[in-house]
Model the fold of this input.
Amino acid sequence: MQKLAVGIDIGGTNTVYGFVTETGLCLSHSSFYTPNYPIFENFVRELSLQIRLNFKAFEDEYELIGVGVGAPNANYLSGCIEHAVNLSWDKHLPLVKLLGDHLALPVHLTNDANAAALGEMFYGSAKGMSNFMLVTLGTGLGCGIVLDGKIFNGHEGYAGEMGHIIIRDQGRSCSCGRKGCLETYVSATGIKRTVSKFLAKYDEQSVLRDIPFNKISAKKLAVAAYGGDKVAIEAFEYTGRLLGRTLANVAAMNNPEAIFLSGGLAKAGDLILKPTQYHMEENLLSVLKGKMKLELSSLETNAGVMGSAALVFANGY
Ligand SMILES: [Zn+2]
Done:
């Protein structure tokens, strides 16, 4: 029988799960609205139920060997989701234990950025690379670091919190309680804050003036920028400058072969990639110049599910 893994991507809005083969074929995927389950135990029970039910379609041909989960603020070493600001449950959620009890299968948990990095390594453009980073640009900014072929967890599992590198003295307030963190500027939320600042500061005409702040999205900004909107273009340039410079600094620490960008803001394509590339290259140490690739993730569809499933085939890390 062929082996099959369940990959689960838990987000504040949706929880997506899918059945993935060892060669990276996603046989089916489903999702449900995470806030429908305000009690964590009920969420885990529902998830287990759906997985058992949907696996029936494949049980004659496949053996289910494990479950991989990617979630914000998930800790690989403790098996818990800890202090996730965009999930409404308690501060300490023992997901590996609970899901393992329900499904009687090995469960591996890691944060969403590490899962995306694993997906890139197993099924995407990082195949065969031993040293690379993947940066997720979503509500916040996360980073999966692969060193010598393995995800780097750090002493307690908190490595890769690049979103909370402080880049501005007394800068924008961050959800972590501090000020000036990278993700308050460089993320889908960060670029919105930049746009609203630019709109207040400049008289420039902009289609963005007609959109209420909470309706602005990375996608709408990209559409405006491709349509020639100067405020939107400048916001991408500003965001790319800050990201590029930070990546150059981080590269001085771990000398990666490549850095991949993924998540909602990365879907803006060249609008974010080009200025980031330019400012990274400008600020790189001379020994690293011209040698480091910066690319968009090749796994934009079901990246979270694929990456979490890869965690099973990697048998943890
Ligand atoms: Zn922060």
About this structure: The chain has two domains: 2-121+302-314, 129-296. Residues 152 and 306 are 19 Å apart (CA to CA). The two ends are 24 Å apart (CA to CA). Residues 230-254 form the longest helix (25 residues).
